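Let us practice reading a record.
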Amino acid sequence: MEGIIELLEAFTNVSTLLASIGMILATTSFISGLQMVKGKGKVEKKIHKGNGFISFGILFVLAVMSFATFGLSLWSVTGWTVAFFIMFLKHKIVHARSRRAFKYVSWLGASLICMWLYVVYIHIPL
């Protein structure tokens, strides 16, 4: 019974919940982004943009929580900077509206999913 309670406490941690929501948003954003390339629907664009803004906000909150809890270190600052750079680079490529640039967006979307997998992994307090 204690093991179940410990597992439940681990998954009710605020940072774990935020990281999990970010992972879900990154996955849905990746799927809606692939659909956006094929279609011209305005709804998909709004969903994709909303997912991006919310994901960026969650990543920012997690970075602030991490710095407040563990302080500043070279590795943590580097890791969070790389995460923000990946999101920023994807944003710049999408807004370039170049047809050649769109082939790299799916790679960056997949790297965002991998990034969120790592963020979820480091925030599970086991």
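A brief commentary: The chain has a mean pLDDT of 76.
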